[in-house]
Write a structure and sequence with these properties.
- The chain is mainly beta and 115 residues long.
- Helix content is 0%, strand content 53%.
- The radius of gyration is 13 Å and the shape is globular.
- 30% of the residues are buried.
C-alpha cells in the first residue's frame, strides 16, 4: 500500500509564499518522476511542476520564476516552494509520484490566495 501525505496548504495574501510538502510511504520503489498538479473550481487538473529522479525540472509557464520544486530521494519527499502567489494560483494542489508500474496521487491540499 502506497500513501502520499501532503501538507502546507492554506490561505495567503497575494504576493505571499507557501511551501507544500509531500511524503511517500509504503511499498513504493524505483520512483521516477515526482510532481505537483492543481485543479481550480470548474477547471481541469493541470501540471504545475515535475522533477525527475535525476533532478531535471519542468514548470508550467504560469509559475515559472515563482515556484520551485525539489525532492529528497532518500526520504521519498517532494516539496513545492511557491512565491509571489497570485489569486489565480488558488486551487487544490495534488502530489503525484510515478514509478515504472504505477502513478500515485495524494489527497490534495487547498491553497487559497486572497486578500
Amino acid at each position: 500500500q502506497v500513501q502520499l501525505v501532503e501538507s502546507g496548504g492554506g490561505l495567503v495574501q497575494p504576493g505571499g509564499s507557501l511551501r507544500l510538502s509531500c511524503a511517500a510511504s509504503g511499498s513504493i520503489f524505483s520512483i521516477r518522476n515526482m510532481g505537483w498538479y492543481r485543479q481550480a473550481p470548474g477547471k481541469q487538473r493541470e501540471l504545475v511542476a515535475i522533477i525527475t529522479s535525476g533532478g531535471s525540472t519542468n514548470y508550467a509557464d504560469s509559475v515559472k520564476g515563482r515556484f520551485t520544486i525539489s525532492r529528497d530521494n532518500a526520504k521519498n519527499t517532494v516539496d513545492l516552494q511557491m512565491n509571489s502567489l497570485k489569486p489565480e494560483d488558488t486551487a487544490v494542489y495534488y502530489c503525484n509520484v510515478r514509478n515504472v508500474l504505477n502513478s500515485y496521487w495524494g489527497q490534495g491540499t487547498q491553497v487559497t490566495v486572497s486578500s
